[in-house]
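Q: What residues go here?
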């Protein structure tokens, strides 16, 4: 079975349950691995509707599952890899957490929803993504129609007429240069090997707000991207680092142009000797922005600041 990726647009508890309950029950009847990652309110509704079957469903907090786009994609891969036997599939009833996101975070989660159609295209998985019309901005609901090939309608489905090819959707978000940061930017103007890059991160990251417990991982992520700049760019690059109210950002830029599609969203072959850098960086960082083309390639690695 290949991927089924549906949007469930609902405006009442009844509308949510009319699609969610048949989806879950069918999965349990088939012996699928069923995850429910919804709001607390919808989890309560679902538990009440499943009666004696509820213990067979794995419930996870939505804030934990939808922590960052890269880690959520990897979580799907790990669940699929651990499926028992060859008959069951992974079913996820999920509600992405949109509340409290800034525009950049909202954009990246939209990109994630689109790229899932490519990253898990051949996976034995059925993802039903809930969108509460009562609470979400219209733009997010409209975008769901573009990132999900089908819509859940009760116990059935219909094609989304607004669905956008992920190649085109992704390209829309790679058309503009990333805006330049303001004041307070630390700068390593030129590097040709990794030691100065790692030292640069060590000198500035914690002072700018990177949680000390995440420093080693953040250094690894920056090192992976900087290594790509040397290997695939012009053999050198530059690094900048600064802080916003929410995140610390490290930018690695070079004069090369990347050609691989969906950069860092597609898991590399574990047996390959290289090509894992962007994938690793996406797992570590809370967000990863990338622009390629024009004057070169720029990657921004974001990590949430500690309070």
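A:
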């Amino acid at each position: 079975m290949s991927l089924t990726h549906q949007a469930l647009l609902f405006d009442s508890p009844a509308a949510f349950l009319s699609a969610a309950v048949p989806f879950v029950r069918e999965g349990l009847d088939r012996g699928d691995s069923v995850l429910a990652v919804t709001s607390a309110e919808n989890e309560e509704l679902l538990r009440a509707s499943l009666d004696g079957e509820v213990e067979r469903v794995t419930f996870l907090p939505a804030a934990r599952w939808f922590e960052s786009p890269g880690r959520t994609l990897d979580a799907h891969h790990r669940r699929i890899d651990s499926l028992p036997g060859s008959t069951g599939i992974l079913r996820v009833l999920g509600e992405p957490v949109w509340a409290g996101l800034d525009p950049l975070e909202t954009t990246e989660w939209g990109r994630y929803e689109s790229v899932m159609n490519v990253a898990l295209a051949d996976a034995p998985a059925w993802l039903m993504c809930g969108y509460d019309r009562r609470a979400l901005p219209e733009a997010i609901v409209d975008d769901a129609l573009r990132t999900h090939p089908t819509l859940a309608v009760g116990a059935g489905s219909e094609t989304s007429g607004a669905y956008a090819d992920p190649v085109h959707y992704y390209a829309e978000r790679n058309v503009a240069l990333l805006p330049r940061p303001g004041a307070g930017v630390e700068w390593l103007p030129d590097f040709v090997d990794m030691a100065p890059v790692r030292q640069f991160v060590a000198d500035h990251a914690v002072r700018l707000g990177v949680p000390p417990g995440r420093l080693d991982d953040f250094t690894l992520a920056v090192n992976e991207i900087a290594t790509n700049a040397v290997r695939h760019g012009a053999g050198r690059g530059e690094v900048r680092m600064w802080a916003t109210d929410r995140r610390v950002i490290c930018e690695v830029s070079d004069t090369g142009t990347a050609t691989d599609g969906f950069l860092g969203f597609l898991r590399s072959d574990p047996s390959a000797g290289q090509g894992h850098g962007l994938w690793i960086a996406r797992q570590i960082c809370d967000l990863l922005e990338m622009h390629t083309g024009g004057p070169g390639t720029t990657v921004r690695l974001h990590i949430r600041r500690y309070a």
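A: Context that may help when evaluating the design: The chain has two domains: 4-172, 186-304. The mean pLDDT is 92.
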